[in-house]
Amino acid sequence: MASALAFDAPSDPMLERRRLIHEAARSSLRRRALTSRVAVGVCWLCLGIAIVPLVAVVAYVVAKGLPAWSADFFTHVTAPEGIPGGGVWNAIVGTAEIGLISTAVTVPLGLSCGLFLAQSEGKVAAAVRFTADVMTGVPSITIGIFGYIAIVKNFGYSGLAGAFSIGIVMLPVVIRAGETAFRSVPPSLQEAALALGARNAVIARRVVVPTALPGVITGVFLAVARGLGETAPLLLTIFGNQYMQWNPTKPMDALPLVIFNNSSQPYADLVQIAWGAALLLLAVVLMLNIAGRVAAAVLRREKR
Amino acid sequence: MIEPVPAPSPPPARPGPEAPAVTAAKTVARGPRGEPVMRLRQVSVSFSGRAAVRDVSFDVRTAQITALIGPSGSGKTTLLRALNRMHDSERSASVTGTITLGDLDVNAASTDATLLRTRVGMVFQRPNPFPTMSIYENAVAGLRFNGVRKKSLLDESAESALTAAALWDSVRDRLKTRASTLSGGEQQRLCIARALAVEPEVLLMDEPTSALDPVATKRIEELVGELKDRVTIVIVTHNMQQAMRVSDQCAFLLMGADKAGELVEFGPTATLFSDPSDPRTLDYVNGRFG
Amino acid sequence: MRPGDRQAGRRPGLPNRAYRSLLVATAAIFVAVVGWYVLSIVVQARPAFSALGVSWIFQKVWDPTHNRFGLLPFILGTLETTAIAMVLAVPIGLGSALALAHLVPDRLKVPLSTMVELLAAVPSVVYGLWGLIVIAPVFRSTVEPFLSTVFGWTGLFNGPADGVGLLLAGVILFVMVLPTMVAISRDVLAVVPLEQVEGAMALGATRWQVLRKVVIPGARTGILGGFTLAIGRALGETVAVALIIGNSPYIAHSITSPAATLASLIVNNFGEATGTELSALFGAALVLMVIGVVVNAAARWLVPASALSSAVPVAVG
User: Fold this and answer.
1) Domain-wise residue ranges, chain A
2) Per-residue pLDDT tens digits for C182-225
3) How far away is chain A from the Cα of C107, in angstroms, using its nearest Cα?
4) pLDDT of residue A87
5) Does the residue B17 lie in any domain?
6) Neighbours of chain B (3+ CB pairs under 8 A)
7) What is the chain C residue with the closest CA to B143?
8) Looking at the domain A70-302, which fold is it?
9) What's C240's domain CATH number?
10) Looking at this predicted complex, what is its ipTM?
11) Is B147 an interface residue toward A (CB < 8 Å)?
């Protein structure tokens, strides 16, 4: 370099590097920009692909299920094959009873266990938590088999066996949701109550549970929604029943079972019943999901 | 596309070094010390219609350190981020006025933001090395993003930048280790090296020492002083003493009545602090608010 | 009553020790039930192992009338349907998660995410019905002929193409595990610190470069956890698969062939099975339970449970 600029002399290799870098940047710009645009487009496409099935499933279930919804559908029990006018009233009763029984047992037990986990540290609690986590994902057919072994082998098929199995499916979900909700209660609230001389049981009842209520409600609603939608545990435990059966100690029918059994039938009206039952089940499950989220949001807002 | 910066016109009648000859059309030339490298004219930044910074005009001069000072909320960082078009990703943001880098209009639609950022780099308030990358990979990250593949160039730039950031000696033996093994001050110097490795003409620094302890702060301030011959620095700081120690020129911004920041005064640091023209500047540098 | 009670008056609520014991008892009940579950299946499966040895699990033939039992076709069916589902779910799930976490405008983030999450709430049996009645005919008439024309040279598509089979099951499984993959990936992708995203942008990275080099690596572990959890769900899926897989107890030689999984085997044969066949079915349940536990345990180990949104019900049935 000709010029004797004090501040430029040591930077000459720097200028050369800068030139090379700018050259690389400029020449690669088109490729990089194009790749970026394509990749971003692919991501949007993936999102579209992910949404399509939801829309498609709901649309088809509504389109094919709504025609099945008639007065007969809701008030009659299963009709023998080929005879029209059948309904799912017995299945509705079965689903409702099984749902109620399993919820009534699972929620108190699960929430108490969740409270235990929220207030415990240490290896034992960690092991229990891990067990609950793993159990939420275990194949539910194996839980159905367990229900069979535990109850059906000894007492025969019954709605109670079904409720037992569904309860076991729901239990870990309630436990973990409960723990998460209880953990979100600020310790300062609990400590304040403690400082006033309250016993732990009272603190739980008066402070922890009410504060955690939004999360608890969401968790319970979601657990129930999941429980109602499970089929495999029922397949091996309740046997199905084409007659009305109010007694849970006897074999019962349930909506998921009706759908499963009727799907592969050659009779068109049975298939239509399956669609109608699917629409009903889907509606209940989706409403529970949405209600759970909405209730939690409303309760959370009211606290402010 | 970015136009190459042509040779600057001969300097005005001032004692000082002459402009270097431009070596090639594609080479980015540097002006002599003191020539404006970035010019701001009536620059305003608003979000969803509400102005955050209004009508700022000043020149950033080569090989000088320009500090943006003022109380919090006065729009210093917002203004700084407009210089390398960081507001592009904010949908509600709108930048008006003219910002030029040499001959290039920064905000023109024909100017590519990613290329701009190879010429105007940025160091952030909290050290942000990429945690899944090693020290070496962090240092050359900017080069790799811009398509540089030649190993020799990557190695050379890494060593040069890490040396300039006073980090080379302590990391040369552990370049492959994770960046998260460095201390806070070292991480910030790594971020400075990362920005320098791309050989920008201007380096923007957004309160680079506010997350660091006093010892690390002092080292970074020394570093900034050493760097000013290599790259023009614009630094935002809410610490007046730091501005006094480090900068050659200061821009004092203050939030106006309409909650938008405006430029109250701009000038050489010594003058601004000892004998400012505006009474508000006097109040600020005397600690009457801030 | 304890010292001090007299002055304070009787305080409401259970005494602390009793309260604590009550909570511990509920945890103990839960653990006991889980233990009972594991034990029951092990005990019921034992006769099969004592009658048939241990390697019967890997035998190819399932023929109860000739007293030959082997689980290999069903293990393979389980793995293959899962593989098809995951091959589709990983890229599409990641792409959707990236879009939801970083590309979608803020006001659309929650509605779109909720839509994807609601996919997880659809009962499995509804997917089975939809897959069987709506999608299977499309596969039979359009998709499978197309695939065997275009990809027949791979040798993978040259079997029966009735619609039901491995491919349909894999695709429906993909739809079922997608929400898991998307929700968990989206959660971890969204929490990559903004300062790292900005740091990369300030160096001149394009949008995709930022995602690929900074955001995705930062979310690696979480994505892997979501992936494992999705596999867990796919492996255990029973009812939807049973309806659409065609239930053929032979190893499938083409992606479009009917096949069977461990779960569909149990569902379809449990009602009438007796004796050794019944024990063999318990054996299948045992294998399925072990696979499910191992995969889920791996998933939870990879991602701390707190990172998993409990709002994603992972229904497996």
Assistant:
1) 16-66, 70-302
2) 988 998 899 899 999 999 999 999 999 999 999 999 888 888 88
3) 16
4) 85
5) no
6) A, C
7) C203
8) MetI-like fold (1.10.3720)
9) 1.10.3720.10
10) 0.85
11) yes
